[in-house]
Structures are given as structure tokens and as C-alpha cells.
Amino acid sequence: MSAPAAAPTKKATKAKTDKKPASHPTYSAMIKAAIKADASRTGTSRQTIANYIAANYKLGGNKAAINAHLRLALVRGVKKGLFTQPKGTGANGSFRLSERHTDSLN
């Protein structure tokens, strides 16, 4: 006859480790600070925001990861209404603080 089916093996689970807090604020907070510091009438470009963040915060040396997080934060911020995008689509173009968030910063 056939051999009995082997019992499924359980995968070893890792013990949860405590995450250390980030040494920088959230990307949306860093983007807000960059836009406020630039104060351009036409909006602030992603490249200008990235340069400001790199100069003022300790994020490490992985530029690809920093740009990926920055792009996602910009797109999510536009969707949530934190930022407006006068030019471009997605993570390209220029960004400004939305009117309701500009009032809360002053």
C-alpha cells in the first residue's frame, strides 16, 4: 500500500526584536520642512527636496533607498492632501504644501 503522509513541518519563527527608533523624523515631516525652507512660488522639485533632506538629516549612504522612500512619501502625501502638485505627475514635478497644512504650520 502507500506510505503514510509526512506530517507538515513548522517553520522556525524568529523572536521579535525591539526596533530602534529612527534617528530622523518621518519622510513627510522632512518633506514639509524642505518645502517650507525653499518657499518657491512655483513649488519645490523632488531633487531639491532630496538635496535638502540629505544635507540636514542623517539617513545613511544608500541613495537608492532614500529616493525610493522619498518618492513613495511624495505620492502618498499628494493622495492624502498634505501636498499639492502644480506641475508633473507621480513623484515628478514640483510640490507645495496644501492650503490647509500651510495654515497649521504658522
Task: Describe the protein's architecture and organization.
With 106 residues, the chain is mainly alpha-helical. Helix content is 45%, strand content 10%. The chain contains 4 helices and 3 strands. The protein has helices at residues 27-38, 46-56, 63-80, 99-105; strands at residues 44-45, 83-87, 94-97. The chain has a 3-stranded antiparallel beta sheet with strand order 1-3-2. Strand 2 and strand 3 (94-97) form a beta hairpin. The longest helix is centred in the last third of the chain and has 18 residues, at 63-80. It starts with 26 loop residues before the first helix and ends with a helix. The mean pLDDT is 78.
Name some characteristics of this structure.
3 strands, three-stranded antiparallel β-sheet, 45% helix, elongated, single chain, mainly alpha, 106 residues, 4 helices
Reconstruct the topology from this structure:
Elements: H1 27-38, E1 44-45, H2 46-56, H3 63-80, E2 83-87, E3 94-97, H4 99-105
Antiparallel strand pairs: 1-3, 2-3
Helix pairs in contact: 1-2
Q: Work out the helicity level.
A: 40-55%
Q: What would you call the structural class?
A: mainly alpha
Spatial strand order of the main sheet: 1-3-2
What oligomeric state do these chains adopt? single chain
Succession of helices and strands: HEHHEEH
Bin the strand percentage: 5-15%
Low-confidence stretches: none
Which radius of gyration do the C-alpha atoms yield?
21 Å
The general outline is elongated
The total count of helices amounts to 4
Distance between the termini: 80 Å
Mean pLDDT across the residues is 78
- How many strand segments? 3
